[in-house]
Write a structure and sequence with these properties.
The protein has 137 residues and is α/β, with parallel strands linked by helices. 31% of the residues lie in helices and 31% in strands. It comes from Prunus armeniaca (Apricot).
Length: 137
């Protein structure tokens, strides 16, 4: 069993579904949670779901990790996408939960190859669409 210093175990589905998001674009986003000493999938967002659907999926008082496949058009009119990793740690979540998520984040992120940007958010305004766009452009 992994301890907080070494990071949590990562369920195989997490990597598999992330690869499907990245390569096949089967999902718009994935929310992950820590449950029974391992990181597991909390929610899969369908390809047609919006950024608002994504941000409304976060619980108000529990931490989560998430990835979002952000589509955009460059100034040269090229369609592109970038994958964002978001560490959600609301102020209202328990201190122990915040510590466990913070200590496991980097190891988990290394398991997900292809992340372009990372955001850390304690309230929805810190991961607004404007902030995401600002990181891309």
């Amino acid at each position: 069993m992994a301890n907080a210093a070494s990071g949590m175990a990562v369920h195989d589905d997490c990597k598999l579904k992330f690869m499907e998001l990245k390569a096949k674009r089967n999902y718009r986003f994935i929310l992950f949670k820590i449950e029974q000493q391992q990181i597991v999938i909390d929610k899969l967002g369908e390809p047609n779901e919006s950024y608002d659907d994504f941000t409304s999926s976060f619980p108000a008082d529990e931490c989560r990790y998430a990835v979002f496949d952000f589509d955009f058009t460059t100034e040269e009119n090229c369609q592109k996408s970038k994958i964002f990793f978001i560490a959600w740690s609301p102020d209202s979540s328990k201190v122990r939960m915040k510590m466990v998520y913070a200590s496991s984040k980097d190891r988990f992120k290394r398991e997900l190859d292809g992340i372009s940007f990372e955001l850390q958010a304690t309230d929805p305004s810190e991961m607004s669409l404007d902030i995401v766009k600002g990181r891309v452009f």
